[in-house]
């Protein structure tokens, strides 16, 4: 079965890491392909019996990137199950990454010609986000702001393995203090629950450790909130599946993303273990693993 993955998104968000991972998985990879060549390239490559194709197109690519959604729709209309992964990051993170790499933003020269002065890095980032917003709104987004490269590689692999007609259901814990992940489709706030952080013996543990699990399990309000979230998802999940989407990400947030949100995400994943493919992720800590269940 063929697998076609398009990597796109904001400059500095990790597209090279994602494309390299797909190359390691055996994909035939092309970076910075001109927008107008995408449809012909994918069709011809598939005709040559190359079944795993990964292409990166972004603001650097020659041609009008605003035409990309139309081209993607044409490929899907021809029966080519192209998966689009849009990588994003917040402005603060992007500024830091560019500062470390000391590279110029790819829009610098273009905006300099249009504006008559050399734009700041923040201006370039803001302009790029505005240009790509329509594409971001229609495709699956991974917010890489707080992700370690190993996490991004794992998530890209998971998404690449979703088969046509399947919907990957993901329960993802996160820390509100680090910002809301833009990849979330549904967000539930569990900061109202008792916080194990204030128990000195539990502070360094996570919501996956037995001691924290036992501590949170003693509270009726914890079970009530999990039951309410379960009921909501059970009611609306069939409607999301009818929408022919390939991914649904349910984000569970607490203050630090270490105890309550992790516990609730794990509990929900067990409740929905009958749904396949299913994934549970923990965003706030780089040492946390992303597991396909």
TrEMBL record:
Residue ranges annotated for the RapZ C-terminal domain, each copy included: 168-284
Domain RapZ-like N-terminal: 4-157
Binding site for ATP: 9-16
Alphabetized UniProt keyword annotations: ATP-binding, GTP-binding, Nucleotide-binding
Residues annotated for GTP binding in this entry: 58-61
UniProt GO MF annotations: ATP binding; GTP binding
The keyword ATP-binding is assigned to this record: yes
Entries under InterPro entries matching the protein: P-loop_NTPase, RapZ-like, RapZ-like_N, RapZ_C
Domain of life: Bacteria
Protein name according to UniProt: RNase adapter RapZ
Lineage, opening ranks: Bacteria, Pseudomonadati, Pseudomonadota, Betaproteobacteria, Burkholderiales
